[in-house]
Amino acid sequence: MNKTIIAFVVLAVVLVGGYFVMSMKQEPSQVNNTQQQNQNNQNQQPIVVPKTHDVGYTDTGFMPKELTVKVGDTVRWTNNNSTQMMWVGSAMHPDHIVYGGTPLAQHCPDADNNDFDQCENGQKGESWSFTFTKEGAWGYHNHSFNKDFGKITVQP
Question: pLDDT tens per residue, the chain (156 residues)?
Fold first, then answer.
């Protein structure tokens, strides 16, 4: 009878111990999936949705005069109730060379819209948009009425 009790105790210990070992152990595919999910979460960058910002133009100038945007954002200038024509051009007047690197005579007309230059007069009610792809502080002016200035600061 002692042998039966010993055999029963040994069997119980093996079964209980085996159960605990198996319940603590994950299958390799489960471990790999968990590791992959953790790695994917660490590598994900927040999705940045470009925005459109509005600048109005009136007889008192651009409003707002200064604006901060992100790379990839678009700024839309609208000639609102102005008696002046509006021609948005990169600094400095009269060449508009600072943003695009080429003078007005070389980049207008700006078919690709990458030189930060409207390249023509906009009447009252008309708009012009530009998407900023470079970081920095970019001065601009109304080429048609060059006393009006503004600045767009582009951040990463």
Answer: 677 766 556 655 655 555 665 666 655 555 455 556 656 556 677 787 999 999 999 999 999 999 999 999 999 999 998 899 999 999 988 888 999 999 888 999 888 888 999 999 999 999 999 999 999 999 999 999 989 999 999 999
Separation CA 84–CA 118 (nearest Å): 15
Which of 135, 136, 132, 133 is CA-nearest to residue 88?
Answer: 132
In the numeric block, the tokens 């925005």 are attached to 51
Cis peptide before 156 (omega within 30 of 0): no
DSSP state of 149: E
Whole-number Å distance between alpha carbons of 89 and 70 = 19
Q: What is the pTM of this model?
A: 0.70
* Contact between 90 and 116 (Cβ < 8 Å): yes
- Measured on CA atoms in the order 130, 104, 121, 148, is the torsion positive or negative? positive
Question: Rounded to 5, what percent of the chain is helix, strand, coil?
Answer: 30, 30, 45
Neighbours of 149 (CB within 10 A): 15
